[in-house]
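F.,

This is the one I mentioned.
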């Protein structure tokens, strides 16, 4: 009997060893191990100094770590403006089955959306992004094309006084006030007049929760199929985490814009002083014309909006606390007649009365009409109290023309 017991124990040990070896072989051969994850190259734009390119290793709440030519480089977050992945985002432009909008304007698209209790999930390519249900604002099936709105959006009751489920077929939509309680692959659960009702998911085209919008959180995060707003972000090959509550696969990260949360637009700041002297000085005293010559806000996004300034205008702004740099681009704001390379004005920028930039704003007319490309204005204002901008008449004489300060902003 003793020999039989020993034989059984020996056989058991052999089976255990074989099992362990099999598992080890599977782990080594598995294409999903972290060791086999592709190493992604990024280009990082810094607040000062040129860009740096390397393999992204980790992002935490204090720094970005990259590998440059086999060497570890740790960049403090306050020196990082943007993180860009130059490699193409495969599959990001495909049509999506669903779009989810959060209270801060973040938007994600994917193949499926489900919500149970305190957690919601968006599936894309077989992987999930998990987020708190309390941040949900709207859901649309199918996802509207980028830059467009769902066709039923204009039909939602305003002001809102309850959650809404939108049921539709073709061009006909019915917005039903209710309480939203859950979403599965097959049904949307609502409470209507005290009764819990499952509505077939394929009949539902939209949802909206009765919740107050929240302001953007500062950091713009480009991800697969969308854009997120974040107060904090961490990244490693194990995953992407936004605001310690939204979790996504690591491969979904497409880029980061830290500078977006650190800028104070000059457009929104009231100048301390504005002096305007038109070419014909008396025009400034004519009723209704003074405002024409004063600096004028041009609405638009970060690439197109700005401030139009006409010669001769001097404006002074107080530099915001903790501002480090002032950035903008100066281009002609209107076409100029003729056939030559001309300047429409001369721009001078001074800090605390000391000029740090003085150059003409040029435009090429005739066959090659258009603004002459100029380097972006990028000035260290960390020790300055006041920023002064003077747009003067051209050195060659004449009235000149309006100058557009595109995206003028202080960066903290």
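My design for it:
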């Amino acid at each position: 009997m003793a020999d039989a017991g020993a034989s059984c124990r020996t056989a058991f040990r052999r089976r255990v060893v074989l099992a362990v070896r099999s598992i080890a072989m599977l782990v080594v051969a598995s294409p999903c191990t972290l060791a086999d994850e592709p190493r992604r190259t990024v280009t990082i734009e810094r607040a000062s100094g040129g860009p740096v390119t390397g393999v992204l290793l980790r992002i935490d709440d204090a720094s970005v770590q990259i590998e440059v030519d086999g060497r570890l480089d740790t960049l403090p977050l306050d020196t990082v403006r943007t993180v860009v992945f130059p490699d193409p985002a495969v599959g990001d432009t495909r049509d999506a089955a669903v779009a989810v909008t959060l209270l801060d304007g973040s938007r994600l698209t994917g193949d499926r959306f489900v919500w149970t209790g305190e957690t919601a999930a968006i599936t894309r390519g077989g992987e999930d992004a998990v987020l708190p249900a309390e941040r949900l604002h709207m859901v649309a099936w199918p996802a509207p094309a980028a830059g467009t709105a769902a066709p039923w959006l204009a039909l939602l009751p305003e002001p809102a006084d309850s959650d809404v489920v939108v049921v539709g077929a073709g061009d006909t939509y019915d917005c039903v006030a209710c309480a939203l309680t859950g979403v599965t692959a097959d049904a949307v659960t609502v409470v209507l007049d005290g009764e819990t009702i499952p509505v077939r998911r394929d009949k539902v085209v939209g949802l909206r929760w009765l919740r107050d919008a929240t302001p953007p959180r500062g950091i713009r995060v480009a991800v697969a199929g969308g854009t997120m707003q974040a107060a904090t972000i961490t990244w490693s090959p194990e995953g992407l985490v936004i605001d310690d509550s939204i979790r996504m696969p690591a491969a979904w990260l497409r880029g980061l814009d830290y500078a977006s949360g650190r800028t104070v637009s000059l457009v929104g700041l009231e100048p301390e002083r504005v002096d305007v002297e038109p070419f014909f000085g008396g025009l400034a005293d004519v009723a209704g014309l003074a405002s024409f010559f004063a600096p004028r806000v041009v609405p638009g996004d970060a690439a197109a909006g700005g401030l139009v300034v006409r010669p001769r205008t001097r404006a002074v702004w107080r530099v915001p606390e903790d501002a480090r740099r002032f950035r903008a681009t100066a281009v002609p704001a209107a076409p100029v007649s003729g056939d030559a390379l001309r300047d429409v004005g001369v721009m001078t920028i001074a800090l605390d009365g000391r000029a740090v930039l003085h150059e003409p704003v040029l435009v090429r007319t005739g066959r090659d009409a258009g603004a002459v490309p100029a380097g972006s204005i990028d000035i260290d204002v960390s020790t300055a109290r006041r920023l002064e901008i003077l747009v003067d008449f051209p050195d060659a004489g004449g009235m000149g023309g309006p100058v557009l300060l595109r995206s003028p902003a202080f960066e903290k």
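The first strand starts at residue 41 and ends at 46.

Talk soon.
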